[in-house]
Amino acid sequence: MEQEKLHATNHYLYYPDEKNVPPYLAYGFRPIFLVFAPYVLISMVLWGLVWSGAINIPFMNDTLTWHIYEMLFGLITAGTLAFLATGLPELFPGLIPLIGKKLKYIVILWVLGRISFWFIDITGIYLTAVLNLGMLGWIIWFARHAVLDRLQRHASIGYASLALFFIEVWFFASKLGFVNTDSFAILKIATGAIVVLILLALRRVNMEAINELMEDKGIDDVFLSRPPKTNLAIFSVIVFTIVEFLYPNNSALGWIGLASGAAILGITSEYKLEEKFILNQPYVIYLGFIYILLALGYFLMGWDILNPNIDALNHFRHFITAGGIGLSYVVIMLIITWIHTGRHLTSNIYTHLMVALIIIATFMRGLVPFYEEYASELYLYSSIIWSIPFAIYIKEFFKFLLAPRADGIKG
Q: What CATH number should be reported for the domain holding residue 152?
């Protein structure tokens, strides 16, 4: 036990000597998750009411475009900050963890970005652009250690974040009339970039979570997430994203979509270890479903493109956004919360339910074109069901975020 605790403290040798830091500001993920979960819960229910026709937002024009923007950029900035602020101090000894007042200010910046978004027709696009680009720019600056690392061990995450920053600049430039590119087309590119970022993050999350799980279970084996399969999936997604932007009506895009789905699904073969069987472990299943939903999204979009009689491309895209990306938020939040509050990675009825509800809501939303007579109900109920896991997270996990680490280590 003492050796295990000593190993954990290696990550905190450079923990700042700041006095009177409350537990909720003691490490990067804590305040982010505390504001992220309620925000997702409230905003998704609100969007469900909008798309079902129950309410409208009088102070926001072009509701669809801004909804997509917020669900992509608004959420991924918080997710990226939580991931990097938690992981980089471990990956690069000497990097000072983000805690206390500095952490509070960057979280406030994210919250201000969300407020400016909801009141964009009142406060103006410029303010929203400055706040949100400033937030993402600060994240990239924080991640510069990964990009500047001589060995380039984790530089891909930094480069993906930088690409996302330029795509967001491009989006705001289109909304402000500086470029003629369709803003909706830019958001499709952003979706591809976010999928790439998540695939890169999952490679590291898989290593940490599954090895932690096997150690707790006494399984004598090591899980290694090897780059080639992830790199093939990333290459396929990039090709699909570029071709969709340049040649959206080309039938070749359909085959690229099928190839992208197959490449992403192929990553799940890494869970089949030579010596031990781990496919019955809940967190392996949780992580596997992220790849399955992402793959299903690209499969269905490819199928749609190759079948002119089907017109559900953007509905099927929800298997990627609400499904794969949404489930990645939930699963990574669970893993980080358990492990980085000094607890063992645990599954229970609540974690099962959180994952299952995201999957159910994704199918309800993604299959709307097959049940158009119930479209309004599916919009509303799918958004409510999709948001319930975040309500469960608030109920079951906020107490961990508001308390010191269970093992007594700083953070």
A: 1.20.210
Query: pLDDT tens, 19-42?
Result: 788 989 888 899 999 999 999 998
Distance separating alpha carbons of residues 241 and 192, to the nearest angstrom: 6
Q: What percent of the chain shows pLDDT beyond 70? A: 92
Residue 333 CA, chain-centre distance (Å), reads 9
Phi/psi region, residue 61 (left: phi>0; alpha: psi -120 to 50; beta: rest), is beta
Is 21 inside a domain boundary? no
Residue (of 262, 210, 212) closest to 240 by Cα position: 262
Nearest to 85 by CA among 31, 40, 13, 37: 31
The pLDDT, as a whole number, for residue 393 is 97
Number of domains in the chain: 1
- How buried is residue 96: exposed, middle or buried, by Cβ count under 10 Å (0-12/13-18/19+)? exposed
In a domain, residue 203? The reply is: yes
Contact assessment for residue 343 and residue 18, using Cβ atoms and an 8 Å cutoff: no
Q: Is residue 74 part of a domain?
A: yes
* Domain housing 118: 2-16+28-401
